[in-house]
Specification:
Length: about 210
């Protein structure tokens, strides 16, 4: 396993990420906290592009939990049937919408525990919502971040919770808010699982990965 990267090097990594893309954005389309929550729930084992294609029409008619309940599960299924695991996801979206209406006055709660108590919402989903909507420096570790963190030494850990903690402990505070977006985008487009594009990598000289590609 690669050693945990030192502070000075991590700071330089994120300085370069910031210089390249000062305000990185998540790629899931949304208009409010509720649509963001639904989009992230739908994105499990699916691509952001696939989710966006399905939700553009959906969010025009159901952008609040009340409107989602009024739409109904059958109509929701028609909107999201191109997304993997769509039947279970539809059930979760309807259930969480009802809980939001009945227990939270139609508002999305902004504590990790309250979010994780909702159907279909795990720690990663909760962290995405906290980070993107409320600008809390939560680190949502997906497969891209897990790979990049361990491959580069930016955040070393044997499981996602360990990598999340490594990010929280090691990323300088002034870069913490956008850290997970920089790492996701880096993993999605440059530091890919197979044949990483090392020749196009802005942190190539700082990365200890031994099997670099041209």
């Amino acid at each position: 396993m690669v050693r945990q990267m030192d502070y000075k090097t991590i700071r330089e990594v994120f300085r370069r990420f910031h210089a390249s893309e000062p305000e990185p954005k998540g790629e899931l389309e949304h208009v409010n906290a509720f649509t963001l929550l639904v989009a992230v729930v739908l994105s499990a084992q699916a691509t952001d592009a696939g989710v966006n294609k399905a939700t553009r029409a959906l969010f025009k008619v159901a952008d609040t939990p009340e409107r989602m309940l009024a739409l109904g599960e059958e109509a929701l299924l028609d909107h999201i049937k191109t997304i993997g695991l769509f039947r279970q996801k539809a059930k979760n979206v309807m259930r969480l919408s009802r809980i939001l209406v009945e227990d939270y006055g139609g508002e999305v709660p902004n504590s990790r525990a309250a979010l994780q108590a909702l159907p279909g919402v795990g720690r990663k989903t909760a962290n995405v919502v906290l980070n993107v909507w409320w600008h809390y420096p939560a680190q949502a570790v997906d497969t891209h971040i897990f790979r990049v963190g361990n491959r580069t030494g930016i955040a070393v850990g044997k499981d996602v919770l360990a990598v999340e903690r490594a990010l929280e402990d090691n990323v300088p505070v002034d870069y913490a808010h956008h850290a997970h977006h920089w790492l996701i985008l880096h993993g999605r487009y440059i530091c890919t699982a197979r044949k990483p594009k090392c020749g196009a990598c802005i942190i190539r000289d700082l990365c200890p990965f031994e099997e670099k590609t041209p």
